[in-house]
Write a structure and sequence with these properties.
The longest helix has 15 residues, at about 105-120. By secondary structure, the protein is of the alpha+beta class. The strands form two sheets. A two-stranded antiparallel sheet has the order 1-4. The protein has a single domain, classed as Alpha-Beta Plaits (2-Layer Sandwich). The protein has five helices and four strands, in the order βαββαβααα. The chain has helices at about 15-20, 45-50, 70-75, 80-85, 105-120; strands at about 1-5, 25, 35, 55-60. Bound molecules: iron/sulfur cluster (SF4) (2 copies). One iron/sulfur cluster (SF4) binds next to helix 1.
């Protein structure tokens, strides 16, 4: 779930606001996005993927907010990891990093459970 916008890194490009499928962000003062509807976040990582300033942090928990410390996240090296390891932008020719789809494990498992429920439903 989206947890952080690092305002000091944000360039105000607005890309995260545009690509978020569930309209989690509002554009705030100086074009810095605000997390306005965190509960609507699908943990799809699209905002991280499109943020070339690496100013966003999406946590792997899809079903609950897990507040994080901004300084810890900045120092952790996690900012921009999803974009880098997905091979976007300046990382397009980098073969050192692997896919980060493991970060979506929870949401994939949730989808599998929903799918199993549907399969077991008796025909109407
Ligand atoms: S992770 Fe996906 S749903 Fe959540 S804020 Fe980012 S783009 Fe929106
Ligand atoms: S994509 Fe990144 S740089 Fe652009 S507005 Fe969103 S947080 Fe700021």
């Amino acid at each position: 779930m989206i947890e952080l916008v690092i305002a000091s890194r944000c360039t105000g490009c607005g890309d995260c606001v545009s690509v978020c499928p569930t309209h989690v962000f509002d554009l705030g003062a100086d074009n810095i996005p605000l997390i306005a509807r965190q509960e609507d976040c699908q943990t799809c990582f699209m905002c991280e993927l499109y943020c070339q300033a690496d100013a966003l942090y999406v946590g792997p928990d899809h079903d609950r907010a897990v507040p994080v410390d901004a300084d810890e996240i900045i120092n952790s090296g996690l900012l921009g990891q999803y974009r880098r390891d997905s091979g976007w932008d300046e990382w397009a020719n980098n073969t050192e990093y692997t896919s980060q789809f493991w970060r979506m494990t929870q949401i994939m498992n949730g989808g599998r459970e929903v799918s199993a429920t549907r399969k077991n439903k008796p025909a109407a």
